[in-house]
Amino acid sequence: MKERVLNFACEGEPLVGILAEPEPHDGTPAGVGVLIIVGGPQYRAGSHRQFTLLARHLAAHGFPTLRFDYRSLGDSGGETRNFEGVDADIAAAIGALLAARPGLRGVVLHGLCDAASAALMYCEAHADARVLGLALQNPWFRSEQGQAQAVLSHYYGKRLRSPDFWLKLLKGGVGLRALRDWRRNRSAARAAPAARRDDFRTRMLRAWRNSPLPVVLQLSGEDLTAREFTLGFDQAQPDWPRRPRLTVHRHAEADHTFSDIATERRMQGELLAWYLQEFRT
């Protein structure tokens, strides 16, 4: 495995990426590359260097992998933006990866949190034949109602079963404050969300429903973002787990970024197995 810097442009602004590439002794190169989209406010290395390590792992097994900073993040130029405004950046990065590795037939978009959401929205907005699959980790699907529901089920569900909580409640103080917070979240959870045609959640659902691409989804058990995603999709599209060409991995003890070393290695192994199954030529 070797690495090199890719400098490319998006709408006149400079973007920077690091391309991890297989070497001859890494085996037969795959016909598909991987584009890691990094959500804000992280840059291309990711939390605890997770994207650096993942890119090197995939490249060592034949899959060229580009991790890059979209405009306004890391070493890339441009004005501040969020995950809802990076379609042009993704398109530019796909072009840069394919130009650097002209033998590839396409790419898989990989994203964690709001970068996973950005990948889905890119597929909803663009019929880009260069995109051959999606690797999504704990996608961002937040709404005020969804956040409240996730807090109630994930956090308060555990607290209400805890004898320590009820002891604090009887003594006043922390327990009473927690009970007030629970009531506030319950009210928010019951509020009807305002849906818009261009809402990012609506766009994600359309992509999930309409895209024919293979998808691998990794969800963390100790993560509110993952909980919000499953609750939101359960309500809006109850049959979402039966989507064709979907592979789901659940990590019960994992946090948002899979920071435990053993969990991170399992996550990498699952992704590599999926890539080999779907795309090895």
UniProtKB/TrEMBL annotation:
Assigned keywords, A-Z: Hydrolase
MF (Gene Ontology): hydrolase activity
Ranges where the AB hydrolase-1 domain occurs: 48-256
InterPro entries: AB_hydrolase_1, AB_hydrolase_fold, Hydrolase-1_PEP
Protein name (record): Hydrolase 1, exosortase A system-associated
Organism: Pelomonas lactea
Organism placement in taxonomy: Bacteria, Pseudomonadati, Pseudomonadota, Betaproteobacteria, Burkholderiales
